[in-house]
Amino acid sequence: MIRKMIFHFGRYMIWLRSILSKPEKFFMYYKETMRQMDDIGIGSLKIVLIISIFIGAVVAVQLSYQLGETLVPKWYVGYILRDMVIIDMAPTITCLVLAGKVGSNIAAEIGGMRQKEHIDAMEVMGVNTTSYLVLPKIIAGLFTTPLLVILAAGLGIGSGYLIAIIGGYFTAAEFLQGLTTYYDAYNVFIMIIKSLVYGYIFTSVSAYHGYFVKPGSIALGRAGTDAVVYSNILILVSDYIIATVMTG
Amino acid sequence: MIRAKKIYKSFGDLKILDGIDFTFEKRKTNLIIGQSGAGKTVLLKILVGLLEPSSGEVWYDQINCMGLNKKERRQLSMSVGMLFQGSALFDSMSVEENIRFPLDMFTNFTDGEKRLRIDYCLNRVELKGVNKKYPSELSGGMQKRVGIARAIVLKPKYLFCDEPNSGLDPKTAIVIDDLIKDITIEEDMTTVINTHDMNSVMEIGDNILLLNKGKMEWTGHKDEILASQNQYLSDFIFASPFLKQLKERAFQGI
């Protein structure tokens, strides 16, 4: 188990180095990056929209329930909801879902190309396949994930507000007071850092699993599963590390 | 000309290639033949640079490929074209985009120049009106033709074909064979074909290398096959009872 982990880590690091070489043609890399941004960014809008609305709604309802019978002022719900969503819910939950949706897609796309000899065909042509196939995905992930997370945070807070008002858990004034109290822009900075790290993790780890897929449809399926599982584990581990380093 | 010098290749304890020493000649269709598991694909992958040999050298004319760094290797790759067994066409791209890909990646041609080159290559493989079609909309033979068009679009000096006839009917297979042979002469290329199609061997085998369990069993021209005393070659080429009978009749002059 440990040997296997060391093997994968070593191979991943060597593989990463080959990604960072000079592109054969900048325009082709630019075109591929734009395509990936569309795939990852626009293609994930719907799912991010749905989960962020429900995250905000559930947090608002549960906080109201937990704090309802206590002496804690009601505006605290808005304050706690804002920071929970910004610091952890929006980046972590959104990226765990993106790792499932985008990660499995990346692993299947690159893995399929490996199995159908598309990668060999490009290598024979002289294309640096690690760079051409992986770098645009990582760049697209680094650009689009923070934007999706910011959107998720906004929608999460907005939906929490709406649900709580409609459900009568607190007043709009109480919520707005909570939102504007103890605001610290540093929390938004933590959110952006987290989204960048997670975006990098799920794109590169998924591409790695696809790139080194073994022959056969079962192996391709396993590559997709491994991409999601390892991305999720690494996201959660780095969540803890970032939390410790930036807020500890 | 491509020269394989004392090529050895093992995967762990499993010996795949055992001292291959052979010259693939220019303007000739050089065939690597042998049973499944004889090491044909591994040798082809070593020649084309997709695998490293355990020991030995591969020379492309005056260039020793083993001494090249990654950048030089990629530079050399631009003079190499390859037709894969399953054609390896990018299925998210149309026929035209597939052929255009190497031009976009490696040349500074204008759009018009690229279009001219694409049209020339498609005409050369006798495909018309398929520019906008996707690989899944083409027959196996048409996919092979597109694969050839893509392989020659950068005017390579070396062409590699891995099982160009697999999955094709005998008539289409002959058309593909003839096409490869004609292009080899026209474009002044060194062509290496990996095949176990006996029709190809007898039709276009200018320079044949027969592998047996990773070793060189026999080398020669297609015309030398009938007269050869090599039992393994005879058993391999005339494997079916029908072909055996034909050979015996040929010797008896019937």
Describe the structure.
Chain A has 248 residues and is an all-alpha fold. Chain A has one domain. Chain A is built from 9 helices and no strands. The two termini of chain A are 31 Å apart. Chain B is an alpha/beta fold and 254 residues long. Chain B has a single domain, classed as P-loop containing nucleotide triphosphate hydrolases (Rossmann fold). Chain B has helices at residues 40-48, 70-77, 95-106, 111-124, 140-152, 170-186, 198-204, 231-237, 241-252, and strands spanning 2-11, 14-24, 29-34, 55-60, 63-64, 80-83, 158-162, 190-194, 207-212, 215-220. In chain B, the strands form 2 sheets. Chain B has a 6-stranded mixed sheet, with helices on both faces. In chain B, strands 2-1-4-5 form a 4-stranded antiparallel sheet, covered by helices on one side. In chain B, helix 3 (95-106) crosses helix 4 (111-124). The longest helix of chain B is centred in the C-terminal third of the chain and has 17 residues, at 170-186.
